[in-house]
Write the structure tokens for this entry.
Amino acid sequence: MAEFVPPDFEVPLEFRTPEFVLEPLGPVHNEQDYAAWTSSMEHIAATPGFRDGSWPREMTSDENRADLQRHADDFRQRTGFTYTVLDAASRDVIGCVYIYPVVDENYDARVLSWVRESRANLDAPLWRAVTEWLASDWPFGSVEYAPRLSS
């Protein structure tokens, strides 16, 4: 299988906007990440890109920590890149962005993102900012990323 990103590509370790900050997701985020998505399961399931998926689903905090470790391992191995979305001021976890290979030969990557229900107003701004970031700073020619209606 071809590498997901070129060996000389420097994967961004941070992305900032006035509203939020993206940093690599890992076990250190477990408590806040778990609180964010478990309080918003129906909202996330209705988010573009998640409607036909197997997540979110009931998990324990320990299962979530293991999932976050898997995402951190993928990041380190450059096989997928998951970022936690933090409020720029409070640094509270408000969502996630997943950048992974896709089987569809029409795309170089598949991107999913969600925000917690209490921050639903940031879904379209996050989508717009990530879309622009991927186009300007990442080595992908085409990305599958479900559009937002209010974008």
